[in-house]
User: Fold Biotin carboxyl carrier protein of acetyl-CoA carboxylase from Pseudosulfitobacter pseudonitzschiae.
Amino acid sequence: MTKNKHDDDVAFIKALAELLRENDLTELQVKRDYAEDDSLNVRVTREHPPVAGYAPAPAQTSAAPAAAAPSAAAVAAPAANEDPADHPGAVTSPMVGTVYMQAEPGAPSFISVGTTVTEGDTLLIVEAMKTMNHIPAPRAGTVKRILVDDGAAVEFGAPLVILE
Assistant:
């Protein structure tokens, strides 16, 4: 590799890192082909704070007396500090993108709470770089919770759905 080509590659990688920062992205991957047997494959990533909608809620203190029995609704609701990503039935996003709950606007949603799915059924779509990526059910089960809204932006690893 020539010195000039190396300098150009370094400048290119620095420009990618700047794009990552300016656009608040967590990952960017590019492949440059120079010749048949010569290419540059670059993946630039950075740590990113969790998406606000997916951070565990802080524990709340209650002014109610400790001896009071919890209501049935309180027992059925998930704990305030429970992280959905830690749930054994969590289906997480394999990429950064935008969530769509149906194949096209006006079409019925792929799933709703209570839907029974089999392994491989489409749960939702994550659009990334103008590509619609169908997210399949990793196993058969029932949809217990949907943790994202239609049209919401998601990060890699963000919990999308809870299957049980």
Remarks:
- The CA atoms of residues 126 and 141 lie 21 Å apart.
- Strands lie at 27-35, 38-45, 90-92, 97-100, 116-117, 122-128, 131-136, 141-146, 153-154, 159-163.
- DSSP finds two helices and ten strands in the chain.
- The radius of gyration is 21 Å.
